[in-house]
Each structure stands twice: as C-alpha cells, then as structure tokens.
Prior knowledge:
Elements (H helix, E strand, L loop, with lengths): L1 H4 L6 E4 L20 E4 L19 H5 L7 E8 L2 H4 L10 E8 L2 H10 L4 E5 L3 H11 L3
Parallel strand pairs: 1-2, 2-3, 3-4, 4-5
Amino acid sequence: MKAISELTQLESYSQWHNLETAAGMKYLVKLKNLKSLRLGQRLHNWKPPVKPASFDDATFVLIAKLPALESLEIFEARLSYSALVELKKLPNLKRLKVRLVATPAADIARLKMVLPNVKIEWEPLSAEEDQSTLVKKLKI
C-alpha cells in the first residue's frame, strides 16, 4: 500500500483478495487524483492467526479525504452507518456501489437521504451470504 501511494497520478484503483490490512489503508490519502476506488476484502489465511479485515469503519474516515473521488465500490465487509456517512464529505462523489456488506437496510435508506446526489446501488446481504461469505469464508 505504501508503494501504491507513491503513484499519485492514479485516477482509478481496485483491490480485492490481497493481503493488505485496514492499517495499510492510511496510504490511500496520498492519492489525491483518485476518481474511482473499488475495495474488496482480503483473502482469509486458513492458518492461525486470523488476519484483520482489509478495510473497516475506520477506513471511511480516510476515504473521505479523497477530494477527487467520484465512484466508490465496496464489497465483503461489515460497516456501520457512522462509517458510511463519512462519504458526505466527498464533494465529487456521484456513485456508490455496496454489495456483500452487512449494513441494515434502514442505514442505507438514511444514507440515501444524506447523499441525495449520489447514485447508490445496494444489493442487500442475505443471512445465508453473511454466514457463507463473511463468517465462514472471510472470517469477519
């Protein structure tokens, strides 16, 4: 993540099933030209110890510091409304896609009210997906 943060001209970045942790996300704030960001969860290490999640609620304080961000896609996570509402600090955000994320429908509805100019694409997480993907597969 530190090396990627040196590529300050990046306008689009995607990561999924890598080995990064939420602590590494602090380097994202150097990507001031980033317009599109796609974040998926890290791969689970089947040998102990279980690695922490790639991104979590605290990551959204960092994402909110990306002034050029127009599009954000997030998947495979457990996120609170207080984390997601940080996105209202992004002046250029136009699109948010949320899938395989454990967040209550009521929180997404509240988020849509707070972000009226953002197209929010939300795919609700079923209880089966929560157990099979988040709990068993990713251990989050």
